[in-house]
Specification:
mainly alpha, 152 residues, single chain
Length: 152
């Protein structure tokens, strides 16, 4: 059911498999990361998939199938981010020593920030619209461009 809803959400937003090389070639690191994260957020928060996601997320500690679905979703995010980061590296848009660790760090931070935002919304707190963009901006300044001194 989750795979079906995820596919439907992607089709509704016209999200297709990407040629990462073409995507990053003429755009900045920040532009591409914002586009990717915003598309993921739009897909994940469509009403049908979002309702299902809330059930899966809330039962993952006691339901092994829900936990498996969450693991698979996270692994999809990690793979997509790694592929995107490899394209950034080829086009000299990102400078880090370990591209895989950078992709994991970025993915898990974004994943946590989205969860945090959703928790805030569920708790009736103000939704901070800028939290993701601010992180992406910071990340891009730290690791983007052709300035070799940015390499960690």
């Amino acid at each position: 059911m989750y795979d079906y809803l995820r596919t439907q959400a992607k089709e509704k937003l016209k999200i297709t498999d990407l040629d990462y090389g073409k995507l990053v070639k003429d755009k900045s690191l920040e532009e591409v990361l914002k586009l990717a994260v915003h598309n993921y957020c739009k897909m994940s928060t469509q009403s049908e998939i979002f309702s299902f996601y809330k059930i899966i997320y809330s039962t993952r500690a006691t339901n092994c199938m829900a936990a498996q679905i969450m693991c698979e979703e996270t692994e999809k995010m990690l793979l997509a981010t790694k592929n995107l980061f490899y394209a950034f590296q080829v086009h000299q848009k990102i400078f880090v020593k370990d591209i895989d660790q950078a992709a994991i760090s970025f993915t898990m931070t974004i994943h946590f920030l989205i969860d945090y935002q959703l928790d805030r919304k569920s708790a009736g707190n103000k939704f901070n619209e800028d939290i993701l963009d601010n992180y992406i901006c910071w990340f891009s300044k730290e690791f983007g461009g052709k300035d070799e001194k940015n390499i960690d």
